[in-house]
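Lecture notes, unit on protein representations.

Consider one protein chain, 91 amino acids long.
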Amino acid sequence: MAVREPVMSEGEILGWLAQRLGTHVSVPVAQLSPDVPYAEYGLDSVAALGLFGDIEEKFGLVLDPIVALEHSTLTQLAAYLAVEQSEVVPG
C-alpha cells in the first residue's frame, strides 16, 4: 500500500512554488510576487520543464503543458494544485 504525503494547504503550496520558481529563474523568493506572471521573471521553456518536473514529482501529477498557460501566476497555479492534489490516487 502506498503512503500518501499529507495534503498541503494552498498557502503551503504557494510558498513551495515560490521557492522552486526562484531556484529555476535565479530570483530570490523575497523578490517574487505571487500575482505576477512567471514569464516576467524569465521563465523560459527549459526552466519551465524543470519547474513542472518538480511539481509532478512532488504532487504525483502528470501536467498537461496547457496548465502553464491557463495558470500563469504562482497564485493561480497554487489554487489549481490545491484542488488537483486532492484527486491524486496513491499507488
